[in-house]
Amino acid sequence: MCHPNLVALAVLLCSTLLVNGGKILVFPVDGSHWINMNIIIAELHSRGHEVTVVRPNDTWYIKSESPHYKTITINSSAGIDEERFGAFVMETLTMRRQGASLWTRFSMEYDLMTHFYQMHVKVLEMVEGMFEDTKLMQSLHDAKYDLVLTDPAFGAGVLMAHRLGLPLVFNVRWTIQGEGHFAIAPSPLSYIPIPGSELTDKMTFIQRVQNMLYFFFLTLHIWYVTEPNYKPFVHRHFGSDVHYMELFQSADIWLMRNDFTFEFPRPTMPNVVYMSGFQCKPSKPLSKELEDFVQSSGEHGVIVMTLGTLVEELPEDIAEDFAAAFAELPQKVIWRHKGKRPSTLGNNTRILDWLPQNDLLGHPKTRVFVAHGGTNGIQEAIYHGVPLVGLPLMFDQADNLFRMNAKGVAKVLDIATVNKENFLEALKEVLYQPSYREKMKELSSIQRDQPMKPLDRAMFWIEFVMRHKGAAHLRTESYKMSIIQYHSIDVTAFLLAVILLVFTIFVSAFRFLLHKLFYRNKVKKE
Amino acid sequence: MCHPNLVALAVLLCSTLLVNGGKILVFPVDGSHWINMNIIIAELHSRGHEVTVVRPNDTWYIKSESPHYKTITINSSAGIDEERFGAFVMETLTMRRQGASLWTRFSMEYDLMTHFYQMHVKVLEMVEGMFEDTKLMQSLHDAKYDLVLTDPAFGAGVLMAHRLGLPLVFNVRWTIQGEGHFAIAPSPLSYIPIPGSELTDKMTFIQRVQNMLYFFFLTLHIWYVTEPNYKPFVHRHFGSDVHYMELFQSADIWLMRNDFTFEFPRPTMPNVVYMSGFQCKPSKPLSKELEDFVQSSGEHGVIVMTLGTLVEELPEDIAEDFAAAFAELPQKVIWRHKGKRPSTLGNNTRILDWLPQNDLLGHPKTRVFVAHGGTNGIQEAIYHGVPLVGLPLMFDQADNLFRMNAKGVAKVLDIATVNKENFLEALKEVLYQPSYREKMKELSSIQRDQPMKPLDRAMFWIEFVMRHKGAAHLRTESYKMSIIQYHSIDVTAFLLAVILLVFTIFVSAFRFLLHKLFYRNKVKKE
Question: What is the ipTM of this complex?
């Protein structure tokens, strides 16, 4: 027989599980997006929730085995093709470096768009396959998940949540509708720059015109992706009165990988929860060897450089230029670089295959971070208060770095024109103009000064949705209105018509009266 | 000599004070607004901050002596005249009860507007007097306050913060520009009802037309108050390029006495902090006598009724009707009533001069709260999960109760038409239709399920502003734009003009070509 205390303990554990232990179905996005999602999943697991991840079998980053989650692997080609992607990145870099013509660059952009378009098609094929697999669908129904957690850069999670009738939580920055805010919150184009425009929240007239034109292109691009794919899919499966945009906008909570140390201040919605920096954590001690190297920098400090996991090799001429520039500085340099060892490399520069980025950024000797401008890296730089020299390569990187530049904490270079001289100049500017470091320290102190840690806040709201089966009180249903209704165009037209009518009646009456009078006088005269 | 440990303690205390102990200058609003502000002040005091309250010498509610704050008393008539106000309330009640004509009611509304208008004039006179008192202004400068905390229903705090160059925090729901959100966040009139319109966030076409008309009246009213008063004042003291609206919108943090258990979901801004329910606290045990009375209700439970502090006496006929209705119910009733004892009073009804509202609402036997719909009372009812029968009298009360009605947790009656029958019917509906209680319990559970207590959240952000000398990163500067710029009217007009020009050129060229061709043919033919 069981000891009564043990029974009590078991009951306690069970009740805790009943309260805390939810079941979560996750539709992640492959690549660097997965790194973020995985942190959230690990935290959910540590809080006693059971997480199931849906992954295509050709996925690049998403492992099938993990202590934190179970997986459902779908036969699909919706993953990211690592080799093709790597080749594309290198090709882009080389072409930009060679000063490719406007036409070549435009066709590269078009290639990238087509690449993403194809991924949307494949994702929808994957979902279609799942919908048609009655055994799978039955098992998903039977599993009684509490919610779907998804990165809505692709629509799989949104569609499945609707099919299963489950609450929906987003881990979001980019969506099919562009940057997350633009899909849900009012975004006056007069002071909210379209991401990618490299405009700020203070624009001249010409910049505001540009911003509006960018908005039209964005709208066109959304239409280009949704119209031939999501629209017929949704009509086929949910009926012709259902629109993807509606399903998407009805998400309960938007956990935004963003905040206002990063973004310009702007309107938001009650169900947007900012969790920028949720991946940041204090640094750990370096290895003995690295620590010795860092300490040997003395008062000059250390420069840390990495261009992310996508770019492992740099074109040779750039690498030579960078190495030569580093060699002229009194600082020590730690550089993640996988190509040929540059001939110009100085004694002060250590080349590594991989570097402990967070631990180096958190080291008191670190003075500058040379980075490509991925969101994770920038947020770690903010967290540790290290100013940036930016070398954006693609995607949102230029835009991210531009924001840091506007806040006075980054100097941004163009990979197409960077050389030893301007690289050295940028490094010296960020090293020796105190404003970069001071402003970054201030930004860091603001980012860290929050009532709650970003990851805890994210957890609270995921669990809130489980406790209350949604967050309807925070979510407008304005997405159910047409654009004409939403912007009160019909009401304005009606009121203008009424005013016009009243005015016309008034003028007619006046003319009629005038005519009567005039006519009477005329008659009298006659 | 001092013991070393004591010195260490003193140093510790001093450093704590340096970190925590800020200096705050408060410009409150008199009446029920002060009750809220005083709770915040007491909490600030308990956290080691030094609070100074500016009060006119004829104030009604704001005491000159308090353990929580110091005062600066200004010779002014900007307070609320208790007697005049009480008389006005009684007059209004009686007139509405007698079925006053539309004209009388309109003139009463006009009287109320004039009353508030006069208060604005007096507040500005008070601030003018302060500005001109060089000794006072010097002492305010020398005191080195960290921020101004104000209720911006009147503009004194806004103007003083600008004069002293201090960060500004609002404790706000109503402003000169109407409900707080309308003054700072985008408010699409298609789904955001104008407060007072008794519309919801789901409107028919006609309701949307109404809503837009209400918006025009509101705009007119704002103009009526600011144009002849605030505008010349600001121009006189700060220069002709400064506008009151700008000073007002530049507040760092808006502590909003509101949240989405109360308000319809809507766009908001990053520097809006919701603190609805900050005044709510668990109930304390009742007095022995009251507890016995409550317990004697058995399974039927208790009805609690109070119409707030403004209405101490009810017209005799209403009181008789209420008492008669109560007498027919099996519940026990606790009624705050100061007039003549109604002849119809039943044995089940206890009349009190004052009642411990929070302790009664938190009592498990309480079934219904009959209330006038002041924000404090409603928020306490939500906190304790007690459904409402509402009898709105004036100001925002009808609107507050309407929101509760839309959420299915209140039945609202009109004081003009209430009688024994419909009062009894309303009570029975809320008592015996389970949905009222269930929905209120749900609302209560949502209000209580927050990552942080509302009052703690308010404190965090006040202290954040002190630590960082503002909250610039959360605040847009869109208020610096003109309406034409903000709404991109100039950009739209420009783009339309360009399109028109291009179209005209195209058509002209086409006609020119056609003409040439036609003319050549004609010439050839000839």
Answer: 0.90
